[in-house]
Amino acid sequence: MANRTRVRAAGEGTIYENVKRKRWEGQFPYTDPATGKTKRKLIIGKSQTEVSKKGKEFQDTIKSGLVPGADKKTLWDWLDHWLKECIKPNVRIKSFEKYESCLKSYIKPKLGDKPIKKLTPEDFRKVFNEMLTKGGRAGIGVSTSTVRSTRRYLAMAYKQAIEDGIVARNIIHATKPPQLVKEEIKPLTEEQANLLLKAAKEGEFFYLGVKQRRKPSPASEYHKAMAYAVVMLTLNTGMRLGEVFGLKWGDIDLPKKVVSVRRSLVSSATKGMIFEEPKTKGSKRRIPVTDAVKKALERYQKEQQWFINGMGDQYDAKENLVFANLFGKPVDTSNFTTRYFKKMLVQSGLDRHFCFHDLRHTHATLLLKQGVNIKVISERLGHSTIQMTLDTYSHLMPDMQQTAVHALEALNMN
């Protein structure tokens, strides 16, 4: 003990000078919040005052409910733990991948290696502002929706960090989310929808970009028939892309002209194409369809069965999918939109910036213009509330008001 000069101050533990190592050291007692046992924390410094100050800060931290070592934990140490242990077991795979992607892409590179206890609201404000102005692959900024989602995930992570004794307060709440700027929906007009259906039915889109047109094959004829049936069904039901490709023949009652949505096909970065239950109770629904849709599905079903018979054992009919690839497996939806839908747009002379989801908007818009009750439209779309439908299509309401005036004039009430 000759190398140590002990100093003891009331309530602050034992502080001593370690002559051999030329530093001051302190042993500070604390109660481990995880086990309830009394332990001692070694703290070192260049002077007695420094060790005393660090020791008091450590003891104050413990008294406030924070765990030992929290000051050394980086933001990404915590976020990575939170994602794997708190989020992944409790959300859908696609939702988890969105959480992980946002935090990895925008937060980890900027703040991931910073001690979580030393971060300030200003650190996060700076990142959020950079996301809006310079974020994304193109460096032109990401949407306000993406920034708001990223901020929401961080607030959730900090809330859990408080409960686990990692931080004392949720500094994300000291930042403000950017005002949400909704992207304007781009529905097709009735004329454009018919042009798209015409291109899909004729099937010439299939040969766009092909240097030398080959003779029609069973596979190409099957693909063309499937592409037309997909577009026809979507325009007439407003179903989401994943819902369309998640259909099984058992979900379609052709005699009663009803399509039941029971699952969705989603693309996962880790698991490939997988089926999931609908997100909400409203998403699981029955959609009545027209005679034209019934006939289109009947024709397609015959085409598919003819193709299956030709494939024999190579076709796996176990899933009984309505829209399957050449071997009966789920279709890669991204591949479908790139190889077929985008080509249909070109063939019909429409803007390539239209996306498949715009067919859903088209369905809703055309029904609104026909004066269909908003509740009926909401149910067909599978929205959780009518308010969601109104929020999405409220900009169309002024036109509806004029339609109402014309209807009243037709009544000739004097």
UniProtKB/TrEMBL annotation:
* Keywords for the protein's UniProt record, in alphabetical order: DNA integration, DNA recombination, DNA-binding
Could you name the domain of life of the organism this protein comes from? Bacteria
Q: Which residues form the Tyr recombinase domain?
A: 183-406
Q: Is Cell inner membrane there in the keyword field?
A: no
Give the matching CDD domains. Answer: INT_ICEBs1_C_like (cd01189)
UniProt xrefs under InterPro entries? CB (IPR044068), DNA_brk_join_enz (IPR011010), Integrase-like_cat_sf (IPR013762), Integrase_catalytic (IPR002104), Integrase_recombinase_N (IPR010998), Integrase_SAM-like_N (IPR004107), Tyrosine_recombinase_XerCD (IPR050090)
Q: Could you say which residues form the signal peptide?
A: none
Q: Which PANTHER family match?
A: PHAGE INTEGRASE-RELATED, PROPHAGE INTEGRASE INTD-RELATED
Name of the protein described by the UniProt record: Site-specific integrase
The record lists the organism as: Anaeroselena agilis
